[in-house]
Design brief:
Protein name: Putrescine oxidase
CATH architecture of the largest domain: 3-Layer(bba) Sandwich
CATH topology of the largest domain: FAD/NAD(P)-binding domain
Family: Belongs to the flavin monoamine oxidase family.
Distance between the termini: 35 Å
Shape: globular
CATH superfamily of the largest domain: FAD/NAD(P)-binding domain
Helix content: 25-40%
Structural class: alpha/beta
Number of domains: 3
InterPro entries: Amino_oxidase, FAD/NAD-bd_sf, Flavin_amine_oxidase, Flavin_MAO
Strand order of the largest sheet: 9-8-19-20-21-18-22
Enzyme class: oxidoreductase
Keywords: Oxidoreductase
């Protein structure tokens, strides 16, 4: 087995892990990135399916994602606007496809008024919610003990309005039924995007795409590291450190041993940059503290099928449609024009989430395909039934993801464990887009978390070096005015 030494081991070659690794390298620390998959990118994946380029994972960039925009600029990546000219389509409880413009669906007047009112109520609550500490909201405990579905039921007697408001959080973002997560979790989701109104505005939240695919972000970050320091196909099996390190993060000289099937790396710090649902795929010695183990049992990813359908032409444009479509009553709850930059073919992307995904996954593949295409045809007409390329992104079947799009807590979990997930465990730090404040579950959030983890690790290492220097100072020099007192404010943690 190969043995190496590094200052820091980063586990996971997604946007978070690679951002942290690049930042650490720039600061002068030696780093190695260990990735279980055979590719770089994590939940970002751009690939060719039957000759057609698809964004199998995350893909969109919105104006508020300033850190991602800054990173795209630094990496020399260009963006282009999502096609949105023409009318959108909404299918209500009556099953009739209706064209519309704007953000409020074309339901009856009372339903529209109720939707507008509830968006306003949610915007007010979101404005009071700090995405970095939603558990600090004065009503956090109350909001975390009521499901989003129950809260919506208390707000309006209009079922269609409730279903539509729920769609933007439950179906489109957390990809879980609204009765399984709390109002506070919903507020965090919206606060991370700036407001609930931003989630309702598809032209804002799904503004632009990256030419060539968003996976280029982690790919270009990886290029900034030595090829020998990004090891693919190396799932980490064990992390071992001493019990003393569990008591204080900056133990001078304390080393951690990280083991894969083919490699052992001895390091001073470890960053675990994978989704929380995968933390327990690693053996820890000593075990993680009991509350950390409990926390992992109260976080889970949702379920979604990302459907790609390519046609000889973007026929919907000829019909005056933008291809933006919504319905809480259809198998495909939302869909968009996803034609790649410069292509003459047309591509639709649609999403099937939570219990609807459960239902179609119970069908044979051919029947599931037909059911999904029939849902697309309900929006766009019979031409949608005959794509030249069809593909389903199923991240729940990915061994090193197991769901979408990010982990969220069950009822009461956010206030009970939320702050804990940001706390180091000895020499270990954990983080991914699942733990982001701004940009939660997006690449912007992944980069923000990667930068934070790198900064905290650098400060921790600097603090450890300072401790070692202080330990070397003779006792006689540790009185008033000595280096011990004058540097007391220099500790990182």
């Amino acid at each position: 087995m190969e043995s190496l030494e590094r200052d820091v081991v980063v586990i996971g070659a997604g946007a978070t892990g690679l951002t942290a690794a690049v930042e650490l390298q720039r600061a002068g620390f030696s780093v190695i990135v260990l990735e279980a998959r055979d590719r770089v990118g994590g939940r970002l994946w751009t690939d060719h399916i039957d000759g057609q380029l698809y964004e199998i994972g995350g893909q969109w960039v919105s104006p508020d994602q300033t850190v991602l925009l800054e990173t795209l600029d630094e990496l020399g990546l260009e963006t282009y606007a999502r096609y949105r000219d023409g009318e959108s389509v909404y299918i209500g409880a009556d099953g009739v496809a209706k064209r519309f413009t704007g953000d409020i669906f074309p339901a009856d007047a009372y339903t529209q008024a109720e939707m507008t009112r509830m968006v306003g109520v949610l915007d007010e609550l979101v404005a009071e919610t700090d995405p970095a500490a939603p558990w600090a909201h004065p009503r956090a405990s109350e909001f975390d003990q009521i499901s989003f579905a129950t809260w919506l039921g208390q707000q309006s007697d209009d079922a269609e309005a409730r279903e539509n408001i729920s769609l933007f959080i439950a179906d489109a973002m957390l990809t879980k039924p609204a009765h399984t997560f709390s109002l506070l979790q919903a507020l965090l989701m919206a606060a991370s995007a700036g407001s609930f109104s931003h989630l309702v505005d598809a032209d804002f939240i799904l503004d632009r795409r990256v030419v060539g695919g968003l996976q280029q972000v982690p790919l270009r970050l990886a290029e900034q590291l030595d090829a020998n320091d990004v090891r693919l196909g190396h799932p980490v099996r064990r992390i071992q450190w001493s019990a003393a390190a569990l008591e204080a993060d900056a133990v001078p000289g304390e080393l951690v041993e990280v083991t894969t099937d083919e490699l052992t790396v001895t390091a001073r710090r470890v960053i675990v940059a994978v989704p929380p649902n995968l933390y327990n795929r690693i053996e820890y010695a000593p075990n993680l503290p009991r509350l950390r183990q409990q926390m992992q049992q109260h976080q889970s990813l949702g379920l979604v099928i990302k459907v790609h359908a390519t046609y000889e032409t973007p026929f919907w444009r000829e019909d005056g449609l933008s291809a933006t479509a919504f319905s809480p009553y259809q198998v495909v709850h939302e869909a968009y024009d996803n034609t790649n930059n410069g292509e003459t073919q047309g591509t639709l992307v649609g999403f099937v989430s939570d219990e609807k995904a459960d239902s179609v996954f119970s069908l044979p593949a051919a029947e599931r395909r037909q059911r999904i295409l029939e849902s697309l045809a309900a929006y766009y007409g019979p031409k949608a039934l005959d794509p030249v390329v069809y593909f389903e992104s199923d991240w729940a079947a990915e061994e090193w993801t197991q769901g979408a799009y990010a982990a969220s807590f069950d009822l009461g979990g956010l206030t009970r464990y939320g702050a804990l997930q940001l706390v180091p465990v000895g020499p270990l730090r954990f983080g991914s887009s699942d733990l982001a404040a701004e940009g939660y579950q997006h690449v912007d959030g992944a980069i923000r978390v990667g930068r934070r983890l790198a900064a905290e690790t650098i400060a921790s290492l600097a603090g450890s070096e300072l401790d070692a220097a202080l330990d070397a100072v003779p006792e006689a020099a540790s009185g008033p005015g000595s280096i011990s007192e004058s540097n007391s404010g220099a500790r990182a943690e």
